Amino acid sequence: MYVSVPASDRDRNRVFPIVPGSLVECYSRAVLKHNHPELAGAEYVVFADSSRRYLDCSEGVCRLLGYTRAEMLSSTVDDISYHHREVPKLFEEYLRSGLQSGDFVLRSKGGEPIPIRYRSFVFEDDCKAAIWEPIHDWRDQYLAALMEFDPKKLVHRIEAAEQAVQAEMRRLDNDHSGSPEDHQKLRDAISALQSLRRNSP
């Protein structure tokens, strides 16, 4: 379902996903007043409060994680994070800076890791929103880990890359697909990431 929220003649024919109750105002201000129109076209959008509890999400988020909307609204950021112990510190930094982006690993309802890229915003009216983008190609995560020079970020990059490579390994095994070279590339990537982890500061 969608609702038109025109801000100008240029935007008059654009449509925005409906969010219930008090979040309609927060959503429209995030898109229009705060100049973040990318929220309108994003498939994976979440809203949370300062205690990290989800207030609303798009249908795409539910499909991605395998939860119903009611289940999502009874969950916290920690609940759906693969490395939940990292969440409090990251969220505190996010609230302090008002803006955060990077790679992260979510946990599906079935417990499977889901690597994503995210951008999150805290607006002047305390509206908190984030856009997710699932990472489907393990090579993106792998190269990001190899090219990361910040020791604090490197650990997260390695973990996300390992999860992405292992997910691709499972996919090939389940589908009985991939050439011997494909399987060897994945084994080589895991070995390289393990070496990178051992040699990291």
Features:
five-stranded antiparallel β-sheet, two-stranded antiparallel sheet
What order do the helices and strands come in, and which of them pair?
Layout: E1 2-4, E2 15-17, H1 23-33, H2 38-41, E3 45-48, E4 54-57, H3 59-65, H4 69-73, H5 87-97, E5 99-107, E6 113-122, E7 128-134, H6 138-146, H7 151-175, H8 180-199
Antiparallel strand pairs: 1-2, 3-4, 3-7, 5-6, 6-7
Helix pairs in contact: 6-7, 7-8
**What is the number of E strands?**
7
> How does the helix and strand content classify structurally?
alpha+beta
Helix content: 40-55%
What is the topology, as strand order, of the major beta sheet?
A: 4-3-7-6-5
- Total domain modules: 2
Amino-to-carboxy terminus distance: 49 Å
Structure description:
- The protein is of the alpha+beta class and 201 residues long.
- The protein has two domains: 2-134, Beta-Lactamase (2-Layer Sandwich), CATH 3.30.450; 138-199.
- The protein is built from eight helices and seven strands, in the order E-E-H-H-E-E-H-H-H-E-E-E-H-H-H.
- It has helices at residues 23-33, 38-41, 59-65, 69-73, 87-97, 138-146, 151-175, 180-199; strands spanning 2-4, 15-17, 45-48, 54-57, 99-107, 113-122, 128-134.
- A five-stranded antiparallel beta sheet has the order 4-3-7-6-5.
- A hairpin with a 5-residue loop joins strand 5 and strand 6 (113-122).
- The longest helix has 25 residues, at 151-175.
Concise structural overview:
This protein has 201 residues and is an alpha+beta fold. 46% of the residues lie in helices and 20% in strands.
